[in-house]
Amino acid sequence: MRGSAVVPVLVLVATSVGGCSAGAPAPEPSPAVDLRSEISAHLDESAMDDVRAVLVIADDRTVVEQYYGTTADEYRNVFSVTKSVMSTLVGIAVDEGLLALDDSLGVLLPDYAGAMTAEVAGTTLEQLLTMTGGFRDTMNPSAGADVFEQADWVAACLGSANRPAGERFAYSDPGAHLVAAVLARATGRSVLHYAREKLFGPIGTDTDPAAEPRFAPAGIAEYEAADFAWPVDPQGIHVGGFGLKLRPRDLAALGSLYLHGGTVDGEQVVPEVWVLDATSMHVPARGPGEGYGYLWWVGEADGSAAYMAVGYGGQLVEVVPDRDLVVAVSTHVGLHATIDATQLIYLVDSVIAPAFTP
């Protein structure tokens, strides 16, 4: 059966049916009820007991909002969905003239000039966003010592470069954290302060109170006890690649923001051009999608173009524009993940997307 209530944990990794009157013909089940049942059946058949929430929004209607052993109010670590939130904030900052995609790290982080080789100093913000910056490949544990155990994460991230920038895609948490450092310096504010005003407020994410513990063993208890949380590095920079805690409805709201070209109730929150660019394939990539945009995965769902924000252990925001479809999934992750996001992408591809006509 579906799983029980859970306590969110910080994993230290870079990782109603109505009745009818007697004698009247019984009404046909609504599409929402059918889809909800099909989703639950698929999860059970696939033994995905750690799924905690599935939301399906189609044509601006919540078609399915199902919780398994949890409630709508529970915040959970969304892991690398944090990266797509960072992409969104960068897009806003670019529109405000605070950043440019061709800005180099030497210009963006001048205080760290001594920690950069000439090649790293020439790496651009766009290369960080497309995971072509040449920084440590998170998927390759043998690539070097864990930068997130160092006294200065930014310096360690800069020092983790092990290939020329622009050479190829390599999924990199250090590269994503550099994006956070760049954003904080460009805006003159903490990433959370900027995000509250520019993104979380407009899409309705409740961030008050906010836990901002150090991403270290000593911060785990505070992180676990908190609702909204965004950990920070030793210098107080919010972690750019993982660790943000959100509710399932917040994930759905992020997807809906992108589906609607960066608008919320007619207000332009994110530039439409950024939405299009961030979710277009800039580089082929092996993983949850067929390619990578600006900290978003790009692929297909049932033959339609789709893009995804993907987190460790099965955190997912998937948007299928030509079906007016947003899917958000949140899972429990213990010491080891039991679900891979590709399993949930398959759920969208095989069960959810086919229920809606392009």
Strand/helix succession: HEEEHHHHHHHHEHEEHEEEEEEH
Residue stretches low in confidence (pLDDT < 50, at least 5 long) are: 1-30
**The CATH topology is what?**
Beta-lactamase
Which percent band covers the strand fraction? 5-15%
CA-based shape = globular
Note the main sheet.
8 strands, antiparallel
Named at the architecture level, the CATH assignment is 3-Layer(aba) Sandwich
Strand order of the largest sheet: 2-1-12-11-10-9-8-7
Rg: 20 Å
Q: Give the helix/strand class.
A: alpha+beta
Compute the number of structural domains. Answer: 1
Number of strands: 12
**Percent of residues in helices:** 25-40%
Topology (elements, then pairings):
Blueprint: H1 31-45, E1 51-58, E2 61-67, E3 76-77, H2 81-95, H3 105-108, H4 118-121, H5 125-129, H6 153-158, H7 173-187, H8 191-203, H9 220-225, E4 245-246, H10 248-259, E5 263-264, E6 267-268, H11 272-278, E7 283-284, E8 291-292, E9 297-301, E10 304-311, E11 315-320, E12 325-331, H12 341-352
Explain how this protein is built.
The chain is an alpha+beta fold and 358 residues long. The chain has one domain (76-355): DD-peptidase/beta-lactamase superfamily (Beta-lactamase, 3-Layer(aba) Sandwich). It contains 12 helices and 12 strands. The chain has helices at residues 31-45, 81-95, 105-108, 118-121, 125-129, 153-158, 173-187, 191-203, 220-225, 248-259, 272-278, 341-352, and strands at 51-58, 61-67, 76-77, 245-246, 263-264, 267-268, 283-284, 291-292, 297-301, 304-311, 315-320, 325-331. The strands form 3 sheets. An 8-stranded antiparallel β-sheet has the order 2-1-12-11-10-9-8-7, sandwiched between helices. Strand 7 (283-284) and strand 8 form a beta hairpin. Helix 2 (81-95) runs parallel beside helix 7. The longest helix has 15 residues, at 31-45. Residues 1-30 have low confidence and may be disordered.
